Amino acid sequence: GFPGRFTPQHTARLLQVLREHFPTCQIAITTEVYNGVWDSLINNQADIAIGAPDTLLDGGGIDYIEIGMIRWLFAISPAHPLAFIPEPISESQLRLYPNIMVEDTANTINKKVGWLLHGQESILVPDFNTKLQCQILGEGIGFLPDYMVREAMEKSLLVTRQIHNPRQDSRMLLATRHSASGQVTQWIKREFSLQGILTGIYQDLMHRA
């Protein structure tokens, strides 16, 4: 299971590396969001999750190691009304505009809600790429991973603004089913070490402590 904030390019590179090292292994990659990652592990729908969110679940026979942090930036269209008011932007001002939210894919455990103010309208979308495009079009507001925002800012598609109570960094985990102890799992764990191959693939997405 892979959370939706990872890009198709990174997933394709992961697949390429796995096939190079394990040419006879049958690989199936799915995308899950927030607690949907844990849901897929608990219900035996996935053996390994890269980028599981830091909402640790008791039991379930799941092992995990920290692989990095996602940093969030509040980003809006340059034409959005909030782009023209003083910073930090107050919650009363933010509440006037819908929050573009990626929907948690969990089915059997509680869904996680990202950043949302009390009384604020939310628009649910299936993944972070859709959320990005909606915010570029000015259809709503919200936090995005910093790597997405940087790319959009280089093209003058988004601007960042300071708000009261910004979203904190999110710890990302490599989670594996305890019963999945084969060569592939062990290799993936090893290659997320500091100088590992997989750390290199994802280094532009996640910050290391």
Automatic annotation (TrEMBL):
GO biological process, one term: regulation of DNA-templated transcription
Domain LysR substrate-binding: 1-180
GO molecular function: transcription cis-regulatory region binding
Keywords: Transcription, Transcription regulation
Pfam families given in the database record: LysR_substrate (PF03466)
Keyword Metal-binding: no
PANTHER family in the cross-refs: HTH-TYPE TRANSCRIPTIONAL REGULATOR, LYSR FAMILY TRANSCRIPTIONAL REGULATOR
Protein family membership: Belongs to the LysR transcriptional regulatory family.
Protein name: LysR family transcriptional regulator
